[in-house]
Amino acid sequence: MARKLRADDLFGLRFVSDPQVSPDGRTAAAVVTSVVLGERGAEPRYRSRIHLFTLPVAAKLARQGKGGWPRPLLGEGQVFTRSEYRDTSPRFSPDGRHLAFLSVRTEGERPQLYVIPLEGGEARRLTDYAAGVQEFAWHPSGQEVYFLSRGSDEDDRSERGHPLRVTRMRYRGDNEGYYPPTRANLYVARLSGEIEMVKAQSERAQSLTFGPDPDVLYLIRPGGEADESDFRADVVALDLERGSERVVVTGLRGLQGVSPSPDGETLAVTAAHREEVVSHAGVLLFDARRDRQRHEGGRLISGDADVSPAEAGDSRYGAYPNKATWTKLESGEPALLVNAHVDGVTGLGLLGLDGSLQRLQAGGEPRAVTAFALAPGGSAVFVAESPVHPGELWYRDSFGLEARLSGVNDAWCAELQLHAPEGPLQANGHGVRYWAVRPRRARRDRAAVLQVHGGPHTAYGNGFVFEFQVLASHGYAVLYGNPRGSTGLGHDFAANVLGDYGGEDAQDVLDIADAGLAALGTPKAPLHLTGGSYGGFMTNWLVGVTDRFRSAVSQRSISNWTSMYGTSDIGPSFVERELGANPWGDFDALWRQSPLRNAANVRTPLLLIHSEHDWRCPIEQAEQFFSALKRIGQAEVELLRFPDEGHELSRSGRPDRRLLRLNAIVDWFEAHP
After folding, report:
1. Has 261 been annotated as catalytic?
2. Catalytic residue among 389, 610, 647, 672
3. Does residue 51 carry a catalytic annotation?
4. CATH 3.40.50.1820 domain span(s) along the chain
5. In whole angstroms, what is the distance from residue 308 CA to residue 594 CA?
6. Over the stretch 325-359, which tens digit does the pLDDT of each residue have?
7. Which of 134, 263, 301, 524 has the smallest count of CB within 10 Å of its CB?
8. Domain 422-670 is in which class?
């Protein structure tokens, strides 16, 4: 019999990520990460291993049982690597004989490049750099691997007690820390063991990609400091035979990936579909033979669809590739396989070059696709999750039939009482949707928790959120939805919030609360509030303009846009485009949208949770709000600081700290009935 979920059941979750397919289409690889509980006082940590799955010759149609998913075909698959720490980034060689991957074999080591024969044998280490390997790509010959590394130049400034000389606007990044003084170099490693530098100082290069021409390697890198601080980058083609390079596309904001067409004449580029930072990701086509093309020189084929999934979830760990990949329609016409977030649902789709989008969904239980890889012949593997099932690996054949491959979380799900939401429901007349989770056994006071997502340009939907399950297991109803500013409902809906944070978006959040409590039949029940990042901003904002919440927990929040501008790793670009001002040009516009402005009105008991190494929403934001509320003395307030964690504490922080955070949220609500 299933039991009530506890917060420490987090340690039993397993996270499936980075799906890949072999060139012959017979085998899939994925990374499976689990939590390893510490022995003799050691802290819990993550362990990642690569699993292989033999793909079915013909997938059985996914027949959904009532309230559940189809049974998995392969369970855990074959555990192919057995590191006690981290094996990640599996990539099949083009000839299908080897698997390359990054591995961390000892505590504190940087990732190194390994290759292992697929037919069996020991993994062979190709690199031994103190700085480790950032990323890599197989050469089409299958005999060489190109990779990025800073080589032996470690960043030891702090150990030597040296000061940090800052000359660039973006000198640190969340989850990265301070950027090292040197840039990555591009190398080539041959299977024979030889390593050669190809290009020095590659200016924060990433996304190494080969097309049909084995002498051309594409990569993404910022054109300079101004582009880097403004989230712009170039697509660069390196001619490996001549040793030359050319900039094919320049100055694209939000540039995420490049996919050369099979004939090499067209580049499908995933980037912001408009020049605004609020713009979601689109697919643009560029002529691969031309140089220095700008955004307006590309042809947007994805329309208002978002091809960079943004459905929120807190049970993912690792890499989740969603690169638009060339394939064909049934008619034989070229198309791209994408993961599109449209009308609130994220799933695979075939994007025609004429802009048509064919959604690929076999039906059954709602789900969110979080990553995919195309297989030969038009089939694909993908990772998908639902509100009551963490992510698993799936297979879709070229006829549209689907099968679930993995079941690494099935035993976990069967053991626990999980709560499926009701919805989506309409909160108001502006297209705002929400969901409601009813607990199996409600609290005596029928209390509910209102959750606000981050971004704001993300969205709630069919993702698995462990935090919601924890709250429901304690008897709280959970309400969550997508106020204006969220993605998945078109550009205009997402752009509504620009220059008016705390305006119509705040009213939408309150409308979700009213509609949700009414739908639950408890319009006067106690209501608690929480959210992180933008959700933390909204929590801080709402407690300053209304007293309707019994208590609130503000996480990784924003309280003062005037200081956020200069302290966040994305501050100048984000604040100028989202809030519509900078501190010296229109201070009043930023102050008008800052929760700190309303601190004297706060009466709601407030817990502020923040990580000390959060560079996205720096901890000074929580410190300012905490100090003001303590000084004013009209509201109970506490500040919970997590050491050695960044903005991603709730999703990928150290497991024991994630548990402490969950318990702190529940304890705060229970202390304020």
Report:
1. no
2. 647
3. no
4. 422-670
5. 29
6. 999 999 999 999 999 998 888 999 999 999 999 99
7. 524
8. alpha beta
